Amino acid sequence: MTAPVPGATVLGYPRIGTRLELKRATEDYWAGRLDAAGLLEMGARLRHSVWTDLRESGLEQIPSNTFSFYDQVLDTALLVDAIPERFRHLDGLDAYFAMARGTDGTPGLETREWFGTGYHHLVPEVGRDTRFRLAAAGRSKPLAEYLEARTLGVETRPVLVGPLTFLLLSAASAGFRPLDLLDDLIEVYAELLERLSGAGAQWVQLDEPVLATDLTSHELAALGHAYRRLARLPSRPRLLVATAFGDIGDALAVLAGTPVEAIGLDFVTGPGNLRTLASIGGLPLRTLVAGVVDGRNIWRTDLRRALATCASLLGLAGELVVSTSCSLQHVPLDLDAEPDLEPDLRARLSFARQKIDEVVLLGQALRQERAVPRRDVAMNAPDHRVRARVDVLGDGRPRAEWPVRSAAQRRVFGLPPLPTTTIGSFPRSAEVRRTRADWRAGRIDEAAHDQVVRAEIDRVIAFQERLGLDVLVHGEPERDDMVGYFAEQLRGFTLTAEGWVQAAGDRYVRPPILHGDVSRPVPMTVRWATYAQSRTDRPVKGVLTGPVTLLARSYARTDLPRADIARQLALALRDEIHDLEAAGIGIIQIDEPALRELLPLRRAERAFYLSWATSVFRLATSGVADTTQIHTHICQSWSQDVLAAISALDADVTSVEAARPRTEPLSGARAALFRTGVGPGVYDSRSSRAPGTDEMAQALHHLLQSIEPDRLWVNPDCGFRTREPAEIETALRNMVAAAHHVRRSLSA
Ligand code: MET
Ligand SMILES: [Zn+2]
């Protein structure tokens, strides 16, 4: 930003490497196949290659400290020494990964979704005993990385999670407000800024995405206070406060009232920012870092439009720097890794590397060094059949009232009170994994693949019968993941070969691209569901991924409102549900774990979202008979605000994660708000701890205080996909025993 006006930068960059080197290195380290030195060396290599890439592409300002072995919020917690008591005896990488993943018997930090991006960060824990202090110089990551880049001849702008965001994302012990610790935390940031300045840093970027959420006047005052204090430091780098993920509203005037040198605004998902900026008279003496290139989606930027936005911003700021709307960590690295994409689609895409070029180009165009090229993109032709069906079906026919349905279903299924079931996926055996990989690579044919899948289903069904579960699942061996499996079979989607992004420190996903009108050419799950059902007399659930989750976990087109895309998805699923029902599958579960992920950051926008998100679910299920039992599954912290929406899905049975978030313990009172069947998870299926029969029976008794026995289902929190085959038996056996035990006490 000392460069001639205007410049170009990005707010952050993928850290996972072109070949997922980060994933491989961390997994090897956890498995003991790589030592600490090897891991650290891989980190250095990854950082090095990012810095060189960014420099070679002509960026004027290059960020550093965007690397992380796990998560940037976790890094910040360590940086300021916010280490919970239970990890204090550990050191270095041990402490780091223990906080991230837990160790035997010691739970790690909770994870939470990062501002609607699909990325999950760790939740720092603070309380009365928290004493912030700056990690010792050598362990101060921002400083170390700044110096490391410098040695390589790259001048960088260290990126930090801002103090307000850090505290507002933290979980506090009871009766404690994280913001009460602001002054202490600010002093640590102050010390860090001074050290960075001493090392030569000209600029520091403080990420404050929390400004895109509703803040109280107290929180806004804290924002002003924090940045006035930091800006008063006698020797410090210039400060860029970067916001992202939407409109920052009232926070802009507050920030503008502090002497920070630069403010970053998102002009992609925050269309109101332009108006707000104008309303405060612009930032005549500051630098505006204008996020005009979408950092969260994979579409090519319409350069002329972006340039027009920049042109209108030129009059509203002292200096203008073209940038991305947020860190590029949320998009895949390089389109060049996708030679096989269909050319028309490919021409419409831009991954992290290409977005850098866009930002650089826009900077040059604004300096009138060159004109932006005209790029015409062919949009997908609309599928008129799909559009017409969406119009004609509207909301679909509402189902009968639950009492009517449930009586009909009781006659058909004759399930005992407190029926036991699981959520869908079973652990993936080495053989299944190998077979899937071989089949994908063309090393084995479909028949060989199917044979292994059938054998796996046989095994999973027999296992569940042996354990005495009431409603069975087929175990999902044919699905590598719950989104890609459907995206691959639906029209309107395309899968990438290498388009990986980090969904959490230890979770990598390859979101499909949703670029056209969606329809379902042929049945997707009927074959395996009916095969599984043919192996047992007990009911087997058909399991589908819901419309909102398919939308949330894809890179979706932006030329249609999300509600309209979701309706198309719902129709495709409706066809599938119809075929499952016709094939004799009487219980169908539609998973919507991402219902919460698309929840708008601003409260005022939530009612609208929840109304369409629930209506598309009802549309998908609207055609079924009263006797068909519709289940849904929601995992990841569900809270009061989503609860009403979950019940508006009007499923016959809802399984929800209830055992896992330690901060929101199993609550019968909440589950009781459903009028229909409900299965609050009685144990954490993702932990290796198997609770005993008594513990689970007690949980069930507790739930029965607020839920009638004919509505209460017994199930774990979530699926078993990430577990090892040997790990699940004890917990499941105990769960079934607990249900039987409680049933007996009911009839006694
Ligand atoms: C993240 S929710 C997962 C639901 C899916 N049916 C499973 O059991 O894996
Ligand atoms: Zn789940």
Characterise this structure:
- The chain has two domains: 360 residues, Alpha-Beta Barrel (TIM Barrel), CATH 3.20.20.210; 320 residues, TIM Barrel, CATH 3.20.20.
- It is built from 26 helices and 22 strands.
- β3 and β4 form a beta hairpin.
- It has 748 residues and is of the alpha/beta class.
- It is 40% helix and 13% strand.
- The strands form six sheets. Strands 1-12-11-10-9-8-6-2 form an eight-stranded parallel beta sheet. A five-stranded parallel beta sheet has the order 17-19-20-21-22. A three-stranded mixed beta sheet has the order 13-16-18.
- Bound molecules: methionine and zinc ion.
- Its cofactor is Zn(2+).
- Keywords: Amino-acid biosynthesis, Metal-binding, Methionine biosynthesis, Methyltransferase, Repeat, Transferase, Zinc.
- Catalyzes the transfer of a methyl group from 5-methyltetrahydrofolate to homocysteine resulting in methionine formation.
- Its EC number is 2.1.1.14.
- InterPro entries: Cbl-indep_Met_Synth_N, Cobalamin-indep_Met_synthase, Met_Synth_C/arc, UROD/MetE-like_sf.
Compact overview of the structure:
With 748 residues, this protein is of the alpha/beta class. Helices cover 40% and strands 13% of the residues.
Keywords for this entry:
748 residues, alpha/beta, TIM Barrel, 2 domains, eight-stranded parallel beta sheet, 26 helices, 40% helix, globular, binds methionine, binds zinc ion
